[in-house]
Design goal:
The protein is an alpha+beta fold. The chain contains eleven helices and eight strands. It has a five-stranded antiparallel β-sheet with strand order 1-2-3-5-4. Strands 6-7-8 form a three-stranded antiparallel β-sheet. Helix 9 runs antiparallel to helix 10.
């Protein structure tokens, strides 16, 4: 598993490149992303990454993990960023798929609400900010059950490759809405990516390369027994052109109604915290 174990053996590849954990005496835990050649060799990518990193630094909102440095030399392009405490959502899904634990419906809804809240917070920032690369690998959940988004500088970089959404899904695991032209990595795209994350949480496993975009409508139906949750998923995944979320703020408002039953949030939070604790121990054992 790729949870941050605090050792030099940590490595993780999510399509954007290979990551290593490099503790820094000034910055603390720093994750270095050795950017994949498909991105690093594109002439516009480095400039786009630097511009997005500078933009987020100006906001100083603490919602997105900060980038400390962007380096290029003969070995390639590297992005050094803060490594937040917690477990990647991708690892949580893998842990659930392995059958090491189960998550009750209250916990499933709370975990989904936590991720939705993090994306909504980004969409509330001034200037219509979009993350652009929301996947389970780029969501870190803390032991307290809160979520933070990583890798917010890469959406525009992947967009610069000018590939269709099937290619982007298979190489980077990024879900994008259907479009007449090449996909745009805007807030609407963020919501689609968020929908894919929530669907994976509902299923209790990662989505496979073959399940998106073809077949996603049937998968949503088979995965959701609750009508309100199914409607939310369909709007988030942009499956109905006349009923969709334009941003994660709207998506959060509707999801709050789904989880409004008395006592649901407290039970869900406890279930998520228990899962994170168990998942952390499992990751530590595998890393030792």
């Amino acid at each position: 598993m790729s949870a941050y174990p605090g050792s030099g053996d940590y490595q993780f590849n999510d399509g954007l490149g290979v990551r290593t954990l490099d503790p820094d005496p000034r910055q603390g835990r720093v994750e270095t992303l050795h950017v994949s050649p498909s991105l690093a060799q594109h002439p516009a990518v480095e400039q786009v990454i630097r511009a997005r990193a500078a933009r987020y630094a100006e906001l100083g909102a603490g919602i997105l993990t900060p980038v400390y440095r962007v380096d290029r030399d003969a070995a390639g392009l590297r992005v050094l960023a803060h490594a937040p405490d917690g477990i990647r959502l991708s690892d949580i899904l893998t842990y659930l798929e392995l059958g090491e634990a189960t998550l009750p419906d209250t916990g499933m809804l709370e975990l989904a609400a936590t991720v939705i809240k993090a994306v909504a917070a980004v969409h509330q920032l001034p200037g219509g900010i979009a993350h652009g690369s929301i996947t389970p690998a780029h969501v870190v959940v803390s032991r307290e059950g809160t979520a933070v988004l990583t890798d917010g500088v890469f959406g525009a970089a992947v967009e610069a490759l000018q590939r269709n959404r099937e290619q982007i899904w298979r190489e980077f695991g990024l879900a994008l809405p259907a479009s007449a032209n090449l996909p745009r990595f805007d807030q609407r795209a963020d919501v689609t990516q968020l929908g894919a994350c929530v669907l994976a949480i509902v299923l209790g496993r990662p989505l496979t390369a073959e399940e998106y975009p073809r077949g996603i409508a049937d998968l949503v139906i088979s995965a959701t027994q609750d009508t309100a949750l199914r409607m939310w998923m369909q709007q988030a995944m942009q499956l109905h052109p006349r009923a969709l979320f334009g941003n994660a703020v709207d998506a959060q408002k509707m999801f709050v109604e789904i989880t409004a039953a008395p006592g649901m949030k407290r039970a869900g939070r406890q279930a998520v915290q228990t899962l994170i604790s168990r998942c952390s121990l499992f990751a530590a054992r595998r890393a030792s």
